Fold this protein.
Amino acid sequence: MLPSASLCFLLLGSALLAAWLAGHVRRSWLRTLLRLGCGAALGLLWAAIVAQHYLASELPRELEGQDLLVTGVIDSLPYRFERGLRFNFTVNEASDATGAPVRLPPRLALSWYQEPRGEAQPLPALQPGERWRLALRLKRPHGNANPDGFDYEAWLLEQALRATGSVRGDAGPGSANRRLAAFDFSLGAVVERCRGWLRGRIDSALRGQPYAGVIIALVIGDQRDIGQSDWKIFTRTGIGHLVSISGLHITMVAGLLAALVQVLWRHSFGTAAQLPLLLPAQKASALAGVMAALTYVLLAGFGVPAQRTLYMIAVVGAALWMDRIASVSHVLCIALGVVLLLDPWAVLWPGFWLSFGAVAVILYVSVGRAQARTESDAGARRRQALSAACRTQYAVTVGLVPLTLLLFGQVSLVSPLANAVAIPLVSFAVTPLALLGSVAPAPLSAWLLTAAHWLVLQLAGVLEWLSDLPLAVWSAPMPGWWIFALALAGMLWMMAPRGWPARWLGLPLWLPLLLNAPDHPAHGFRVMAFDVGQGNALLVETAHHRLLYDTGPAYTPESDGGSRVILPYLRARGIAALDAMLVSHSDTDHSGGALSVLEQVKVGWVSSSLGLDHAIVKAAREHRRCLAGQNWTWDGVRFEMLHPTPAIYDSDKWKPNAHSCTLKVSADGVSMLLAGDIEAPQEALLLAAMPERLPATVLLAPHHGSGTSSTPEFLDAVAPRIAVFQVGYRNRYHHPKPQVEARYVERGIQRVRSDVDGAVNLGLGAEPDAPVQVEAYRLAHRRYWYGR
């Protein structure tokens, strides 16, 4: 819970006073300790003040789902995807359906979907800076809440986007959606227009090319056109940091322009102006380098790695202008402070830690170390430079292993080799060609961009080969804090300067990290009910086996419940294989993520009610049709298939919901019934055929609590203590239906909902005195931006 804004300012003043008093303490160790404590307190209070400011503009709950008429300006580069457009919108004024003015957050994240009707107008080609009047329907910030998953709500808070929504209707004649002005001038609009212009040139030159998205990412930092399959290769080979505007690229551009300006300034641009007498060439070149870096970072979208590089260049330039010698460690610390001052939530993202961590490791292994004497022979100097580059790459690779495992649960073993090829190629060939091609006149621009794309294509072939190697990636569970601390200490010990005693002693400190293995329930079974939105996905674990029941929905052609929710969780746990996967039926909110999981994780066998020609059946190593009566036992836990019967398969009258594989898992007097999307006729069939098998401690609410399921007779027969509803926030089906949820309330059944509670972790039969344990993610991991 956040303190009030007034209390934050009061405490902030007290912390500043304490920091000033700490400077007068005589004992140096105590003075340092007090300053560190005051600095931490100042940082926390500053973050609280900024959070209070952003949270104050939250969308009022009573406006959720209402039809609103909003006038404002498009303030981001619109992204066109298969079904429509996404963009950010700055609000000027808004009114409800009656015309009464309403208060909205200053910025909104909007989607404009193409109407499926054939007569619908095509969506307009939106441009940053345009003023529009739009008919909107909004909702408060909400995202899937899962262990080790992407926190969309935190990202929205960081971006000052306090509501999301969609545009209603098209922009045709008679529509409420109307462009009011072609350009509303602001610095942000100018920058975004420039980014759009550059993107348009690249799109026109490389239309249809497989790696056009990589070229766009290198020029303007927009990675949304890079496919998931390409990201998989970049991640497995450890070169993802290069597929963006990285610190190396910014430094290169700033250095080149600074060197050019220095040469031209010394010669007064070929005139008799004697410019060096007015301003030293070093200062002019430093100013040019900072401005070049600022321009590039603005075009990059102001990401954390880009910010870090900009602030470091700016500090060095300021030191040169003030005739001061800048310590490298001081430069890094100042850049770190400025990033956190402007964006306190930067610490939530891996890019922040990897960016500053990589630079810190390089400084640790280089600054202050004795260097070998440079030889006069040019060949010897080249060998010496190559040796230094190899040592740096080794230091970064090994030094970031603990942090990489802590953040991602996996480390690329082929990363040193991949980076040895990719860094010089991307930094000194692809990026310069892409930058020149994006601004050069036609047809030169097309030639340069095509050459850059050809180089990326050749590099991708090498990276794909490396990523397919059996030992390309090493996975392990994300370490606990003590394992990480030991590995970090071991890394610092091993990379200490020569002469440091027994540097090999750092290796034993890595043993807990290297030997870390996925945990299992010692008794009974554990179920993780993921928050995948409107869909089902549950992981059932016994002492030595794992089964995935359903795989969540397909969100877009490139994104689904498997890639966005299930796989990050499995990687974080260090789980590289599943014993079985059960896909209840063909609806995409249950089967949408199956192919992603099968592609990334070894699955022993797949059971489903799908047809033999279905893509999931073809992708499975072994497929079994689920049938009532099937059963097996893992580690004392019994699995029983209750539905469907052969008669269901033989009839053509049933929808896919009727084929839902219904599974009961039992151990030590407790059980869970996974009912898929069965409806009232199937519930009646189960009641007639096997009423003695239905009682269960926990029930996965059939069909997400729809009005066609959870009949009173079925609930009475199952008699669950707990019901799990996997539903999307404000889903269009209005699941669970109020009258259905009321049936659960009348029977005193505890209800947990993924749209309210996030992912739900259930432990059944683990403890004799607590046979059922329930942990809701949003409750166990409270965050002030969740708005609960």
